[in-house]
Amino acid sequence: MAQVLPAERDLRRVIGDGESVPDGEVDGLDESDFLELYRSLVLLRTYDERSVVFHRQGRIGTYAIFWNHEAMQAGAVHALADEDWIFPSYRESAIGLLRGIPAATILQWWRGHPTGWWNPADYNVASICVPIATHVPHAAGLAWGKKLRGENACSIVFFGDGATSEGAFHEGANFAAVMGAPLILFCNNNQWAISTPLEAQTRAETLADKAVGYGMPGVRVDGADVLAVYEATREAVERARAGDGPTFIEAVTYRAAPHATADDPSAYIDAERVEQEKRNECVGRYERYLRRLGVLTDELDQQIRGEAADAMRAGIAAAEAEAPADPGLVFEHAYVQPPPELARDRAELRRVLGGNEG
Amino acid sequence: MAQVLPAERDLRRVIGDGESVPDGEVDGLDESDFLELYRSLVLLRTYDERSVVFHRQGRIGTYAIFWNHEAMQAGAVHALADEDWIFPSYRESAIGLLRGIPAATILQWWRGHPTGWWNPADYNVASICVPIATHVPHAAGLAWGKKLRGENACSIVFFGDGATSEGAFHEGANFAAVMGAPLILFCNNNQWAISTPLEAQTRAETLADKAVGYGMPGVRVDGADVLAVYEATREAVERARAGDGPTFIEAVTYRAAPHATADDPSAYIDAERVEQEKRNECVGRYERYLRRLGVLTDELDQQIRGEAADAMRAGIAAAEAEAPADPGLVFEHAYVQPPPELARDRAELRRVLGGNEG
Amino acid sequence: MAVATRELTLVEAVNDCLHHELERDDSVLVMGEDVGRAGGVFRATAGLRDRFGPDRCIDTPLAEAGILGTAVGLCMAGWRPVVEMQYDAFSYPCLDQLITHVGRYHWRTKGGMEFPITIRMPYGGGVRAPELHDDSPETYYVHTPGIKVAIPSTAADAKGLLAAAIRDPDPVVIFEPKLHYRTLRGEVPEGDHVVPLGEARIVREGDDVTLVAYGSMVPLCEGAIDALDGEASVELLDIRSLKPLDEDALLAAAAKTGRVAIVQEAPRVCGFGAELAAILAEKAILDLQAPVLRVTGYDVPYPYWTIEDAYMPSVERVVDAVRRLLAF
Amino acid sequence: MAVATRELTLVEAVNDCLHHELERDDSVLVMGEDVGRAGGVFRATAGLRDRFGPDRCIDTPLAEAGILGTAVGLCMAGWRPVVEMQYDAFSYPCLDQLITHVGRYHWRTKGGMEFPITIRMPYGGGVRAPELHDDSPETYYVHTPGIKVAIPSTAADAKGLLAAAIRDPDPVVIFEPKLHYRTLRGEVPEGDHVVPLGEARIVREGDDVTLVAYGSMVPLCEGAIDALDGEASVELLDIRSLKPLDEDALLAAAAKTGRVAIVQEAPRVCGFGAELAAILAEKAILDLQAPVLRVTGYDVPYPYWTIEDAYMPSVERVVDAVRRLLAF
Ligand SMILES: Cc1ncc(C[n+]2csc(CCOP(=O)(O)OP(=O)(O)O)c2C)c(N)n1
Ligand SMILES: Cc1ncc(C[n+]2csc(CCOP(=O)(O)OP(=O)(O)O)c2C)c(N)n1
Ligand SMILES: [Mg+2]
Ligand SMILES: [Mg+2]
Q: Which DSSP symbol is given to A127?
């Protein structure tokens, strides 16, 4: 009988704290990769921080904050090729920025404006999944479908610790394993599902342990260590491309911000732990690492941050310049070939709205 | 960090084949236990074999055969106290016989007659679950509910290898673990889900491996070894009563009969493997064990088999003596306090049916 | 004897009811995602965990089918679970347990066991939220045999119908109009307050046209009636209990004017408005002096929220329907 | 030019269609529980695995939500999945994926991607089976925006509607009347045969009363019409495509007689019969000379099979409805 592959229970880390914990390194990354990763982190961080401000200003709606989740998103995406597909949850709403989706588009999504939606095939980025875990089977199906077609692409699906409780996670993971689908199951374990702590979600010692039940490898990485995330994802991608099927990655972090702008975590969160996480947040950690390496200079940093700030300024300006959506869009894209009833409804709505305008 | 409990990958066995594999023993079983177990096995076997005949004779409807599954059912139930609850699937349709449900009742279930249903609270045996895995959360809820009430009862839920693919299995198992519910998840791994073999169902090395992902112990036993099943269940029950939560038991066997009377497995099954399993089927194995022990004599065997045959003869006679069901029962028990519409519908039906009779 | 009342918002009335019912019957427990530590994402369950402990107000794992499925087992152990689904569209994973088991288990036990589960959830649109926070899924529930359904449109009914649901021996689903959780306030009886299932409520009396609605469409219809002031005398019937249904009240309100429009937020095809119209087409055919109109959400995915107002039945669309009925 | 036909049973016609469509378009694949090695529990998919290989006729794990959820991803990879749900009531676990994603994903991509999924399943009662093998769940599907639904009542339509579904760019659900899988035979065109969605079929012409039905209720209504021979001249309309609906045919058939009974096997409340009646109450009110009657399954759990005949609409109940309409 083959040996079971238990979860790698040690948290993989590359980036140290500059003092007691020494830095490691990752094979095959050159300076441009390092800076590319940094650019991604800063872009995501800027997007997130600006969005919270925009929300307070009433310029976007409720918003799911991803502060301190950037390393998981940037590290994982850097390990993918362009033909690989990304299946984000609301927590990765802005991950498409790393694939060229304009900031304006994603801002519009949070503004409830139709230009916030995109054609996934244009970026190989699926739509933002709002319901928990239900996109796991989609990602499994896409990966399996690519494999059936003899294409080389794989897919990655992002979900949270809470998502591992849903049947959809289970069914998707199992399908991927059985079909040998080239899928990376990327679990953002920020240890909270809104107000529900991990210990009320599972009794598993680690979430990576769940991989055992699907007969797939499970690995654990420090989710605030962009290089560790990159490396683990790269290995999973290699395995997927080699035809060895899916991998489960548990990226361990801690939610250092409210669940979303509407949430007040003071009733349930451990404020001290949050402060500690904030001190060690992922963008600063990587920045210090790059400075220790001598790769990042003040000047370069300024430039990268400036570019990100510009992108956001341009993004919100473009979003706000967009004309209000045509109410007639209500009937658009419900079907490729809509039933005749919809045309009648559209005409009726136009008549009633027109009557008001007139 | 605590050590993960990997599945016990060795198949636990107690009963040998009388030759190369030596018999073991189980602490705490006396002769009356041995015979009680035998009586249960013979009763279930007789029920099953007679039912297949009754089906051929057109006296019961489609029937899910459980030939060679008797050891799992009898062994597990023997480890329970009367206050413990049993949640059967269709594969354990007759398990209630071991709790005193009359054979006639279960035959009526397969005859589609209302007297085939019972009040679960009378026997602590839940209704036969037809849809796969959806009763796992019920059993978890009952066990958790008993614990919340400070009662000592636990529950056991039976399901197949195929059931482990369903979201309902996953959610139920996880709830049980998180709530520390005194539940035994008993998986009848007969290696087929109708025509779908285990390797098309999962890539896990063993089904017991799935326990790891829920942070509960998983054990594997030979499902055709009634004593191994008993012992594993007894340990799980002890754990449950001690407040240590659920246990996953994988009982490994092989489906040596069609899925159900309507199924023709010739298109997909390995006929040779079936023959091999039949030679080592669970009732005969235990019978030989008891004879080696000197516990079972020809005379006793005759008596036990005679009793079972009598029970079945009486059962089918009672079932067939039952008056045809009143069509008015259609409206019965839909609600405790039915909406007024139902009374109107019932009156209308009576009028129309009466009109025909008149 | 005057009943003491307090002015509460709709969600406060829900919270008040839960406190009262958990106090009254110690077999009642509340369970769901974030109902405990956080007191619910809308604070409907606030304070329950502190008062009744974590065994009677339970933060569950994130698994709606697991929530409803374990609730079935909890009933078998003697509990009366009040289950929260966090949002309408996030209740869909529980439909399998609902249809397969919750609606059938009492029948399966030949009446031997009861399954007094209450499922409550915020429902409906207009709240400027990302997709899947806006659905009106009552059809999926009310079409399911063995299930009862009620939808309050006032703070007092939010308490009274929920109390009736919790005390009912059958499974009952309560949809709470989240758009009005905090905007609708009203006098709510303190302590015991039960609004029996199966009784509709006449909101406005009128002679020309009858509007039939429930949930968040009731205040909308009131707005439409106000807009029609002087133009038409409109009767407004709040169905409030979809199953059991107060058919007599429906038929009486239809007969009174002979002109009926039904207003429902859910998509049209097989919405509950279709059921109401079908009942009228069978049982009020001689009373009807005009077509039975339906003003509903459209049969399309609930839209991006900047244009959701065009999707939802509006005062304009209801007024238009009334005028068409009058002109017929 | 005469089209070559063969006499087939309803399930053989399904099988014939699948063979033809997989041959015709190599992006079509079939997936589900036991569809491969066993050829389906009703043998609807027999022979496909041998002919097209295990990558185009796939035995999946036992997980209905996983089946439909992976089908969404397969579409994104360019496949046209034809998904089998083994039985009506075992499709309920897939409702979450259906409502949450299948009906909305095309919209979500701003029309950029298509999700040409076909879901087919045997449905309906009368087959003397244990519980949950007998449901008529079309309401759950047809109420869901973004989804189309069709239900054949003949062998030729079983092929033609399924072909239309597979070629349709939108998700389509086909319910196959399992009671008639082997008892209904008919001439079925060989090769290409498409019955467009959205076209009803006049089964019998008549002047006194109109029966409207679909699926297994169509042959039932034919039986009722035969029983009424000499007593009444009855028009029978087979709706066959629930969404899109052939409203013109419905209104014409209703107008022709002014007396309409709708026959549906599903429970009554919010069944598709309610939708049809509601359309008549709105658009045919001046044509109606009698109440619109519904003959349906009851709003109770589908019963034990020895008494299922009392649950299902019967010839007697349909005849009774026709007589009541005539006597009105
Ligand atoms: C099916 C479903 N149920 C409930 C919700 C409401 N909800 C939104 S986020 C969330 C918590 C998710 O936690 P987790 O999976 O850990 O992801 P995180 O938000 O921490 O990234 C819940 C319950 C939902 N979106 N979908
Ligand atoms: C939800 C659901 N889907 C499909 C079915 C149809 N079905 C009946 S038995 C069966 C196979 C079950 O296999 P397994 O879980 O291994 O149990 P076994 O029959 O082998 O005991 C299937 C697919 C069902 N009963 N319920
Ligand atoms: Mg989380
Ligand atoms: Mg099996």
A: P
How far is Cα B40 from Cα D318, in angstroms, rounded to an integer?
Answer: 50
- B24's enclosing H/E stretch is none
* pLDDT tens figures, C112-134: 999 999 999 999 999 999 999 99
Fill in the amino acid letter for A62. Answer: T
Sheet-wide strand order for D80-84 = D57-59, D28-32, D80-84, D118-123, D172-177, D148-150, D241-243
Is A351 known to be catalytic? no
Contact at CB, D247 and A167, closer than 8 angstroms: no
pLDDT confidence band for B22 (50 / 70 / 90):
confident
Domains of chain C: 5-189 (3.40.50.970), 201-327 (3.40.50.920)
Q: How far apart are CA D271 and CA D256, in angstroms?
A: 24
Which two tokens mark A27? 């094979």
Decide: B12 and B223 in contact? Cβ < 8 Å. Answer: no
Residue whose C-alpha is closest to residue B278's, from B254, B245, B295, B314? B254
AA identity, residue B181: A
Residue D159's alpha-carbon distances to A55, B167, D155, D171, in angstroms, are: 54, 33, 7, 17
What single DSSP character describes residue D36? S
Residue bearing tokens 């709830």 = B175
Please identify which residue in the block is written with the tokens 């309100």: C253
For chain D, the chains sharing at least 3 beta-carbon pairs closer than 8 angstroms are A, B, C
A151: nearest CA partner in chain D = D77
Which residue is associated with the tokens 């309906």? D124
Complex-level ipTM: 0.98
Backbone angles phi, psi at B273, to 5 degrees: -60, -40
Domain ranges of chain B: 31-325, 326-358
Quickly name the fold that domain B31-325 has: Rossmann fold (3.40.50)
* pLDDT above 80: residue C144: yes
Structure tokens at B289: 């064990």
CB A199 within 8 A of CB A207: no
* Residue pointed to by tokens 């209308």: B348
Q: Are B151 and C81 in contact (CB under 8 A)?
A: no
CA distance C179 to chain D (A): 21
**Tokens found for residue B35:** 């015979």
What's the rounded Cα separation, in Å, for the pair B307 and B313? 10
Q: Is D124 within 8 Å of D177 (Cβ atoms)? A: yes
**Whose Cα sits closest to atom 6 in ligand 2?**
D86
Q: Checking DSSP bridges between strand C172-177 and strand D209-213, what pairing results, if any?
A: unpaired
Q: How far apart are CA D169 and CA C299, in angstroms?
A: 18
CA distance C278 to D292: 8
Run of H or E residues at B155: strand B155-160
Cα C65 → chain centroid: 21
Query: Among all residues of chain C, which has the CA nearest to that of B122?
Result: C112
Is the pLDDT assigned to residue A350 strictly greater than 50? Answer: yes
What pTM, to 2 d.p., does this model score?
Answer: 0.98
Q: What is the pLDDT of residue B3?
A: 36
CA–CA dist C130, C230 (Å, integer): 39
Q: Are D199 and D243 in contact (CB under 8 A)?
A: no
Neighbours of C51 (CB within 10 A): 12
| Tally of CB atoms within 10 A around B296 | 20
Give the tokens for residue B279: 């030679």
Pairing of strands D172-177, C57-59: unpaired
Positions of E strands within C103-223: 118-123, 148-150, 172-177, 185-189, 201-204, 209-213
Please report, in angstroms and rounded to a whole number, the separation of the first and last CA atoms in chain C. 47
- Is A141 touching D (CB cutoff 8 A)? yes
Query: Quick check: A175 contacting D, CB < 8 Å?
Result: yes
The identity of residue B345, as a single letter, is: D
Ligand 1 contacts CB of residue A163 (under 6 A): yes
Q: Side chain identity at B250, as an amino acid letter?
A: E
Residue B346 · residue B353 · CB < 8 Å = no
